[in-house]
Write a structure and sequence with these properties.
Strand content: 5-15%
Structural class: alpha/beta
Helix content: 25-40%
Order of helices and strands: HEHEHEHHHEEHEEHHEHEHHHH
Distance between the termini: 55 Å
Largest sheet: 5 strands, mixed
Number of helices: 14
Shape: globular
Radius of gyration: 20 Å
Length: 370
């Protein structure tokens, strides 16, 4: 008799309509023979967040040393954004951290980079525009290639291997993986996380500090991303959450087009974009609210919160504690900083990063004080 008590992280596809879901297929031994797709992790090069980037990659590869794992690392950059142009020494550090994985520094398309630079930002600075470089992943035409993206202000706490395998599962059961195929005919899902209790199909809950999907993405989605960027440029409208708002509204537009059923008829924007199902339980986004929540997270994400490598006493950090804490105490921030500090010290011990500058960031005098 086949063991049905196999523990795994996947849920049944809510749109399977009674068909056996991924959890059941693995438990029943029906999926083990299928070879995962080629897979790459992806990050944005950042000189300002380089400390966070190297600690992120060390924690990622530390927790994902077992097979199967993604065999590549994509580093997105463009010369028009000096923030993303790494020095030779910094590139060497990333190559060392990647180990045997193939690292590729992907220069973003010039036309798209120029468009994203014109998108209005709060600070009117290239640092904010650099966050839009992750959209390049939706335009890349790699056939049947899984990609797992992470922001630099994240820390991996548990293996992500299963996520890459689940993304592969989507493509293996996709009747047509070409970008030109109508999205209604495809089984293309965007994997991420939604807040606890939110419906997994609500793209309004999207947070794309972490996201995973199969390339190529549907051409309809990339076209909608371009259209929405052009729209906010023409209106000169500043979005509060630049990159994730662009993706969110693109998904909403496609959801309205292909799946007009609403959760609440009085709110037409709350739609159910069936083909763009957002996986809700990977526990890879959103800052934890309690100590208990930390243990459930596959990755910690300091989005909108004081960065753990920032020295105390900065005005921006003090403001965030006062206005963006959302009930979290400074002691709680210190606890999370301690986790990052430990990972930072482990990164220094790994020998890939020049220990002098990174050790200064890891020291308690800079990283552990609230």
């Amino acid at each position: 008799m086949k063991n049905r008590s196999v523990e795994c992280a996947w849920e049944e596809d809510p749109f399977s309509k009674g068909r056996r879901g991924l959890r059941e297929q693995i438990a029943c031994g029906e999926w083990r023979w299928q070879r995962p797709l080629p897979c790459s992790y992806a990050v944005i090069a950042s000189r300002r967040y380089h400390a966070g980037l190297v600690v992120l990659l060390h924690s990622l590869f530390h927790h994902n040393a077992a097979e199967p794992d993604c065999g590549g690392l994509l580093v997105l950059w463009h010369p028009s954004l000096p923030e993303t142009v790494l020095t030779e020494a910094q590139r060497a550090e990333l190559a060392c951290l990647a180990g045997s994985r193939r690292i590729e520094h992907v220069r973003v398309d010039d036309d798209r980079a120029a468009r994203w630079l014109r998108v209005p930002t709060k600070c009117n600075c290239s640092e904010a525009s650099a966050s839009l470089l992750k959209l390049e992943l939706f335009y890349m035409q790699r056939p049947r290639h899984a990609v797992v993206y992470l922001d630099a202000d994240m820390l991996v706490m548990q293996p992500l291997n299963r996520i890459a395998m689940a993304v592969s599962y989507d493509a293996l059961h996709d009747p047509d993986t070409s970008a030109a195929a109508p999205i209604a005919a495809r089984r293309w899902f965007l994997h991420g996380s939604a807040p606890s209790g939110a419906a997994g199909t609500m793209s309004s809950a999207i947070q794309i500090g972490f996201m995973a999907f199969v390339q190529p993405a549907p051409a309809e989605l990339s076209s909608e991303l371009t259209r929405y960027c052009d729209s906010i440029i023409a209106r000169n409208r500043v979005k509060s959450n630049l990159d994730q708002d662009v993706v969110r509204y693109a998904l909403l537009a496609l959801g309205l087009r292909h799946e007009p059923k609403r959760f609440n008829r009085s709110k037409p924007w709350r739609v159910r974009p069936r083909q763009l199902f957002l996986h809700r339980d990977w526990q890879t986004n959103y800052f934890p609210a309690t100590r208990e929540a930390i243990a459930q997270k596959r990755a910690l994400h300091w989005a909108g919160h004081p960065k753990p490598w920032a020295c105390p006493g900065r005005r921006r950090e003090q403001t965030l504690f006062a206005t963006n804490g959302k009930g979290r105490s400074q002691e709680f921030y210190a606890l999370l900083r301690g986790l990052w500090q430990h990972a930072c010290t482990r990164t220094v011990s790994g020998g890939c990063v020049s220990s002098g500058w990174l050790r200064a960031v890891c020291t308690p005098s800079c990283a552990s004080k609230p």
